[in-house]
Write a structure and sequence with these properties.
The chain is of the alpha+beta class. It has a single domain, classed as Peptide deformylase (Peptide Deformylase). Helix content is 19%, strand content 32%. The protein has 2 helices and 8 strands. The strands form 2 sheets. The chain has a 5-stranded antiparallel sheet, with helices on both faces. The relative contact order is 0.20.
Length: 157
Amino acid sequence: MAILQMHTLPDSILRQKAKKITAIDSSIQKLIDDMIDTMRANSGVGLAAPQIGISLRLAVIEIPESGKVITLVNPEIVKRQGERILEEACLSVPGYYGEIKRAEAVTVKARDRNGKNFRLKGRNLLAQALEHETDHLDGILYIDHIDNPEKLYKVSE
């Protein structure tokens, strides 16, 4: 397993729609493991393949309290419920955070690392992570959801 290089703005891969994964082979399994290592090494809650320069519809999420990694192959949000305003940051937009609107709850359909179809409903931080990582796969960054430039803040050391 390896820690991979993070891609940050203005890298164009972050703005591309990622390609669907057609087969979950050993190279995808290794990529999943490397993505988990990379996410943890960068203290992230989630990581999408485009953030490490790979244009595939693959993301991993690990909510700190859960101790469980969720692997999402070809994820698709099928339902959003409610709305809330929250602060969000991104490993690919270092040094900043912003105030944006996200759903209170989302339902995603995807395949797991073994190719099994599943649906997952998330609330709170999980809902936020599911939306954030799925956005990455469509070339969307959290800063695209900021409706007022004054709601993008520089992180102070």
